[in-house]
Amino acid sequence: MARSQLRLRADHPDREARGRRGPADDHRAHARRRASRGRGQSGRGGDRAEATAAAFPPAPRRQEGRAEGRGAEEGRRDEADDDEEEDGEGSSDLTHWKARLAYDGTRYHGFQVQPNAPTVQGELERALGTICAEPVRVIGAGRTDTGVHASGQVVDFWTASTLGAAELGRGVNALLPEDIAVSALEPAEESFHARYSATGRTYEYRIRNAAERDPLTRLGELWIGARLDVGAMRAASAVIVGRMDFSAFAAGPGGLRTVRRAEWCADGALLRFEITADAFLRGMVRGIVGTLLWVGRGTIDVAAFGRIAASGDRSKAGPSAPANGLCLVAVEYGTRRETGEDHDEADE
């Protein structure tokens, strides 16, 4: 199975359960406040940033009444923020964008910004801040954990920059490290939120099951030399399809999730485990794979795997599979399936 394509649809619903101000309103208001802090943000520095800035000069931002002075301008911003909170409508001077994001997570401490540690979100916000000449806040569909990769991550952000999609995409990719790339950049609807609007996510875990390891694929696959019983692993995977409590596989708090598909595909020595769910608990996929490897090695049988899954006890399950084999390959947007719960994507 080829890595999945990004699926973005415009008919996602507003999250009424979050009250009059939905996540898009909060996101937009936050972006407006950050955009008002200054006229620019420095890039990573060095010849590369300077050369890119020269090739892709920041576009002028939409402005009004600059002659009235900083005090009047700040007063207008405060009034606009107050109006936004009352009527829930967005600011006309900001553009909303969405994009696909791919990255090799090997050298990053996850997607989400962390103090004193390199992260994917931090690199992307730094590049966007340079190109847009303002601080930019990025929201990701999945907050992948340390060392986890992505080929179909989805992000959205707001900016006052007037750059078009082609210019913005080229400029950001020129500033990003070689292990991160943006694609499919396009305007987003006002209500779109990369995380809260998502209705499903698909992860893939790769295993090279061969007597000899391949050094060229070591960063994106787990190598296992002993032969695995793929048939038994497939049978055990069927146990977790449906709605259940996945606490037995979670690295943190547990809870109910709905797994729509969990399949093993073999292509020679390469084994791919693909799993699609409405949302995931932290460490859930790696916990499932680690326990399925017990089945593949003959440590436990399919029935025992089922008992572990139903127990809700993490201590009974196998160790988490290493992060290097895991990749977020797709995020789905569309009509939300009613489950009676409102899920937020945890770290995976």
What does the model show?
With 348 residues, the protein is an alpha+beta fold. It folds into 2 domains: 22-84 and 93-187, 2-Layer Sandwich (Alpha-Beta Plaits), CATH 3.30.70.580; 200-333, Pseudouridine synthase I, catalytic domain, C-terminal subdomain (Alpha-Beta Plaits). Helices cover 28% and strands 22% of the residues. Strand 2 (138-140) and strand 3 form a beta hairpin. Helix 4 packs across helix 5 and helix 6 crosses helix 7 (284-297). The two termini are 22 Å apart. The model is unreliable at 1-21, 37-51, 60-90 and 338-342 (pLDDT under 50).
Briefly say what this structure is.
Strands 1, 2, 3, 4, 5, 6, 7, 8, 9 and 10 form a ten-stranded mixed β-sheet that branches. The chain has helices at 23-35, 46-55, 70-87, 120-132, 165-175, 230-237, 284-297, 302-311, and strands at 95-103, 138-140, 149-159, 180-187, 198-209, 222-224, 242-245, 256-267, 270-277, 326-333.
The global form is globular
**Count of all domains:** 2
CATH architecture of the largest domain: 2-Layer Sandwich
- Unreliable spans are 1-21, 37-51, 60-90, 338-342
Termini, distance in Å? 22 Å
Topology summary:
Elements: H1 23-35, H2 46-55, H3 70-87, E1 95-103, H4 120-132, E2 138-140, E3 149-159, H5 165-175, E4 180-187, E5 198-209, E6 222-224, H6 230-237, E7 242-245, E8 256-267, E9 270-277, H7 284-297, H8 302-311, E10 326-333
